[in-house]
Amino acid sequence: MVQHMKWWGWGEEGIAFDHTDKPALGPFVHERIGLDLDAPPAGVPLVADLPIPPPMATPELRAALGRAVGAEHVHDDALDRVTHTYGKSLRDLVRIRRGELGRLPDLVVYPGDESQVDDVVRSALAADAVIIPFGGGTNISGSLEAPRHETRTVVSVDLGRMDRLLELDEEAGLARVEAGALGPRIEAQLGERGWTLGHFPDSFTHSSLGGWIATRSSGMQSDRYGDIADITRAVRVVTPTGTLATRPVPATSTGPSVREMVLGSEGRLGVITEATVVVHRLPAERRILAYMFPDWDAGLAALREVAVGDAAPSVTRLSDANETAFSMATRRAGSFFSALASWLLRAYLRRIKGYDPDRLCLAFVGYEGSAPHVRAQRRLVERSTKAHGGVGLGAGPGTLYDQKKFDTPYIRDFLLDRGGLADVSETAAPWSRLRGVYDGVVEAAEKAFATIGVRGWVMCHLSHSYRTGACLCVTFAFRRAGGHDPVHQYDVVKTAIQQAFIDHGGTLSHHHAVGREQARWLADDISPTGLTLLRTLFDGLDPGHNLNPGQITGDP
Fold this sequence. Notes:
CATH class of the largest domain: Alpha Beta
Shape: globular
Radius of gyration: 24 Å
Strand content: 15-25%
Helix content: 25-40%
Number of domains: 4
Number of helices: 20
Number of strands: 18
Largest sheet: 7 strands, antiparallel
Strand order of the largest sheet: 15-12-14-13-17-18-16
C-alpha cells in the first residue's frame, strides 16, 4: 500500500514540531511578527466535512483503467482524491484546510510498472481525460493542480508502487531506478550495496525521483553530486505518441537534448517511468562543520572563493543575519556547559574580534571522501574562511543541522496552525549580482508587509554554490491580519519577492519549478521567444492538452 503525507499538512500523521524545549523561540517569534506560539492550534476539518463532489468518470474509462492496473488500484474515495488535489505550498494548505478544493481528481490510479503506465495513458487519452502524474506530493509551485474549470475527467497517476532499483552498473557508476521511488527508498536500496545517489532536497523524505526530474530539483549536497539535471543520464517517459527512451551515454551530439526537454517538464510531455542516474560509492568520511562570519558580505566573499577554488565541498550554506538569529532561537535548552560555551563564543566574537552580534552570519560546509581528502578540503576551505573573518565553530552545530535538515516544513505547519503565514521562494544569480538580488528582495518583502499592514520577517540563505553564482533561498513569515483573506496576503508578499528576482537579474526558480505559481514570469525569465518554443513543444506532442494542462506556460 502506498503511504501518503497528511492531506492537510506536511509529513506523517503523529509527527509535529514542538517548541517547548526551545525557550528562546516563543519570545523571538512574538517580538518579530507578533505571533503567540502558546496559542491553541486551529483545528483541522474532517475529510467527511469537506464539500467533495462525486467523481466524473464514465464506466467505460473505469473499466479500462481497471484492466490496465487491476481494479483494486483504481480509487475514487474521498481521502485519495483530496490527497492528490494539491501539493504542499502555503497556498495549498490554506485552501485545503478551509475546504476550498478546486478541481479534485476524479480517479487515482496506481500502476505497477511501465507497461501499466502505458495502458493508463492510452486509456485516458482515448477518453479525452486529463492526466496528472503524482510522485510524493511535495510540490510547492502548483504543479499538481488541475485547471479549476476543467470539465473533462481528471486522472491522477500515482507512481508510488514503482519504487525499485532495477539495475546497478558498478563499473559505470549508473543505476536504473523506477520513478516512483522516494528518497529514503532509493538510498536504502543503493546503500545496501555501498552506493549513494547523493541527492538530498529539503523534501527528501517524501519526494520521488520522478518528481525531482520533473521539477529540476537540487539537493543539499549538490555542490559535490550535482543537481538532478547533472545526475540524470537517461529517462524513459510514456508520451501520447509512444515511449520516449534516451541512452545513458556520458555525452552525445545528437541535436537538442531530449533528456533536457524532460527535465523540468512537470508532466507536460508524459509520465516519467524510470531514469538512469549517476551514483557514487558511499564516502569513507562525512563531516559538516560550522563557521561564523562577521556579516553577510564576508560570508558571501568566502563562499565565492571556495566555489571557484579546488576544495569542492559537498555542502556550502550561508545564513544571513536574520536567519542566523532565527537558528539561534531554535536551539534546545542545554546543559550548563553548553550554555557557558555559547556565552564564551559570543563574548569572544564581540569583545575580542569586535563583531556586531546583530550582523553575524552562520555557515555550514560539508566534506566527504577519504580521511586525507577531507583534511585537504578542510584546509583549503578554512584558508578562505579565515581570510574573510570566519571563525570555526566545530562539528557540533553541523551535526545538529544534519539531523534536523528535513524538519523545516513542520515548523511552517506549526506556525500556520496558530495564524502564522510562512513560505519560501528561491532564485539563482551570478556572484556579481547576488548582493543586488538579496537587497532587492529584502526591500520588496518589507514593502509588501507594509502594504498589507503586518509585521513581517524575511530571512535568506545561500544554499547551492556554482563557479559562476549561487542559489538564494528566501523565507518569509508574518501573522495573518484578521478579517483579511490569508491567500491574498500571501500573494502580495510572494509576488513582490518573485518580481524582485526578475527585476534584479535572478531566475524565477532555482529548484522548485514553475507550475502555476511562477508561470506569469516565465517570459521575463526565458524571453517571449523561449515561451513560444515551449508552447510549440507541448502543443506538438500533446495537441489535446491532456497532460497536466496549464503548467509552466500558464495556458488556460
